[in-house]
Amino acid sequence: MDFTTLTIDILKGLSVAGSYGIGIILLTVIVRLAMWPLGLSQQRSMRTMQLLQPKMKAIQERYKSNPQVMQQKMMEFYKEHKFNPMAGCFPLLIQMPIFILLYSTLMSPQFIQMAGDSQFLFINRLDATLKTSAGVSNDGTFGVSKYDTFMAGKTAKVYLKGIDEPLENVKIEKPNKAVEVQGDLIPGEPIDFKVSLDSLNLKFSQLDQIEKAEIGVTDVQNKEVENLVFTRKDSILISSVPSKEVQTSFHYDVLLLIALFAVTMIFSQKAMMTMNKTANQDPAQAAMQKSMNTFMPIMLTFTFVIIPIPAGVLLYLIASNCFQVVQTVIINKQLEAEDAAKESKISDIDVNNAKPIKEKEG
To answer: 104-116, pLDDT tens digit by residue?
Structure first.
């Protein structure tokens, strides 16, 4: 079982009342709860960094003429205070593979065929991007635009010479590269596809006996799927299917999701900034962090307008941002309580160690 199929099975199991939108939100909560200790470590690391910032700046100023010595002193400083400057990056590094996996899952032919048209709240399709072309699956005709690309399904049904029963679920190697368009793609004219025999995971003796194969082909842009019959010609399998031109449609529900992502990210950044204000912070560092917190939501929002992001992935990011706000507030209160306990303990030690003041003799 590959990771895409596993992710689909997990979403299917988490989907309450058949809603894959709820499944995505529950998956987000489970992932973020599992990462809670790392989130605590991240915020504790950021808090420690703010407290140590003046001393770190002093070391940098003192050894700025000798970078090698400065690096050595900084490493000694980190070791002395048991501080890892990279600790704050671990949650982001772990979330990135999850984001990529969910993206590839929601864009996969398996999910599109099974639940691509799933609705959730105001979202019409969980696999929809901001701009897509509408296509009707399994109608024998591909609705295409000029620059569309195609990918094969993960398996094929293969017919061999002299054998009545076809081979089911024959694995296709590299499905995203297995199908090629012969010639130019001209909407309204037949599309000629070809698939190399070597793309089928069969023995060499079986490859030589192939007569035809049934393969699902997906238009990557509009998610339309057609099950095509490929016949053998020399060392390749070929198929021709009629096409028609389709117009690109704009999905305002996805635009609203992008806007919600920007808003929730701003709140998430503000929560982090509020946490950092509780510690002594270098003014230059504070100004730079404020600029980054302002620039980051704008940059990512603009990126999501340009790059096609499925509605389901945006839903995951929005839920993750909301969780981040709640987590930041809770952990910040926990860290404040820890600091207060430390200060109280230090104060008690100072009081207990204080020497009594002797009264002057009259």
So the answer is: 777 676 676 666 5
